Batch of 3 targets.
Target 1
Amino acid sequence: MHKLARLSAQERQQMIDDFVDGVFADVGPENPQAPGAGIARRMRQLPAELPDDPTPEQVNAWVELAELIADPAFQQRARTMAVAGPRTGEQPGQQPGEQTLDYRAVLEHAGQALADGIAPGSPEGRSVLDRLVPAAARAETLHQLETFTDARVERYWQLLAVLNGQPPFPPAVPAFEWLIAALRAASKP
């Protein structure tokens, strides 16, 4: 842990670059039109160096990040997302002229349903689902959410926020996982 925390800024950045280069081969900056180019560009973001006197949270975040990017399962999941990722200017699953899922509405409605203990397959859950996803778009929405919803990837971004001295953001994945469960329940005969 001490060794990881004391790596130079260049060594830390090299760890991130090696992760991104391995996971995003053929979908990174060298191929800006590739589906995952934007994701690869954002995943390279890391502060140039830890402060001279990093907080315990920053040291812990760096150690957790280093462990996360070394995990082959995480690397494979990130690769799957990158390959399926949106092209520049598009949202996941968006067709030209198509409206995308409203992220804030999911957090508001699915998040509230989760907090209230509403079962995704219940009539109340169906009502929430009806507000969020039109019936005709459910199969594609489910596919996109299953592809792009992952707590470990969200954790990656949370750790980068800590390293950059930004305030923590609340997890969004639980609301999206609730929506996935509601979509699955609605698709059963």
Note: DSSP finds ten helices and no strands in the chain.
Target 2
Amino acid sequence: MTPYSVRMIKLQHLTKTYCTPAGDYAALRDVELEIGAGEFVAIAGKSGSGKSTLLNMMGGIDRPSSGSVEVAGTAIHEFRENKMAEWRGRNVGFVFQFFQLLPTLTISENVMLPMDFCHTFPVKERRKRALGLLDRVGVARHADKLPSELSGGEQQRAAIARALANGPAVVLADEPTGNLDSSTSTEVLALFREMASSGTTVVIATHERDIACIVDRRIEVADGILLTSTTGKSAREVRQ
């Protein structure tokens, strides 16, 4: 159960099995999990443990073999692909280890892209919103540069701004600090903490060892099974 009063994500009996030349591979096994609105959760585990698959289920990138996925009370596992893509664009922001900024677009154009796809804001307002988000993450001065002109940390900040473009209720980040130095990693994690404190539900898959001091919960995954759930300092403060 989540310590938060409002539930954002609910997974029930979630199983994902992939067919491979070597036989069936169970990436997730009967997962039960609830995450609250505004909660900052870290999914930890070794490579191949099921962390990324779990994030993909929450964000509608992949579908379960069995079980259910609810986000904000919506059973997204029941969506057809066109409906899923529309829902995903409006409700979930994604951040990846290698940033995935389009190299031929400026930083501001990259942030505007989700707005262009989903038509969430009037055309005339999109650049202004992009600049505001870039300012929020501290890279507004690079708005008209190409991604190749920025450092890794600056590119990740821009990727976070892009994830926030449509004002999603949920942000999912897969190893967002895996390609950054320790100092920059700390800064990026602080941005996620700020987002969660502002009401956005943030779930990250990470290898960071000291993550418990900044997240609300750390969930350990191994062989597709949730092993432990450790409550962090922030969540304890919420319940007090």
Note: Residues 234-240 have pLDDT under 50 and may be disordered.
Target 3
Amino acid sequence: MSFYQSIIRPLLFRLPSETAHEIGIETLKTALSTKFAQDFVAKRLADKSFGELSRFGLTFKNPLGIAAGFDKNGIVVNQLSALGFGFVEVGTVTFQPQTGNEKPRLFRLPKDKALINRLGFNNDGTAKVVERLKKLNPNCVLGVNIGKNKAVENEDAIENYKASFDLASEVADYIVVNVSSPNTPNLRQLQKADVLEKLLTALQSSEARMSCPLLVKIAPDLAEAEIEEIVDICLRLKIDGIIATNTTISRENLKTKIDEIGGLSGKPLENRSNQVIRQIYRHSKGKLSIVGVGGIFTAEDAFEKIAAGACLLQAYTGFIYRGLTFARDVNSGLAEILQTKGFKSLDEAVGISVKL
């Protein structure tokens, strides 16, 4: 057990979840505020086993990124890169700033290696986050995840997303359309085929789209037919990829007795996430880039998602539970697994557990 897991995590877990998260962000911001400090840490935690990975026109230094939700306001992008993450997805940001839902709104389930959150897109607003990111020289691929303001009705969602999209495209290497958070009322209705197609078509027609890859993040709670409809839309509109998956509203097989609404992330999501990844890969015949997220704690977990069809990975809850060496441990372990199994590259392993 690492120093973080034996000493630091127990101390942080005595604090309210959101307080501990804020302390973690502030500690990263302060401790790794200089390029010297970032380079010093990166030399010890960065893993170069993968060389360069080319995905939707971008070059990634490794396949593991930090998922949206951890650094909502783009405060510790280069600090996270120094810890070994190959890309950082900022957000979710909304066009207008939001305070989010009432606290408490973030809960730990240690017995399940999980979190429940109902944060509700609390963020500084797209314009402020973009101005912050303009002052940054990112050390990794930078994604921006955009969502809908709570006060905006679904029929007005397109303009709300488009306003954020146009701003975010000034700084983002890629943009993710989040229509799958369970914590904004009726947001998931935007995943319905006809509604989603109108939204993505509108974003596709934006001038900013020409220079910015576009992905969509979906829920794990969709039916098979709904997932296939979304895949068909993405292929038809030439969307660059799908992030699978967001948090789940399911509470099946939890060891913890808890009666809190919100999205569940972590280990309980792993199998369902893998199922969705396999379905997307199979239905698209491997033609759609998939970012696999949900329940990654170890290199073995990461490999399962690659084998299911993911070409990139993201984590959040695993990082909270495993600590500062998490990205290095997963990346180096994944590289070792690939070598042991005889793969010459990560690309050779993508989708090997799926019959097309």
Note: The longest strand covers residues 87-93.
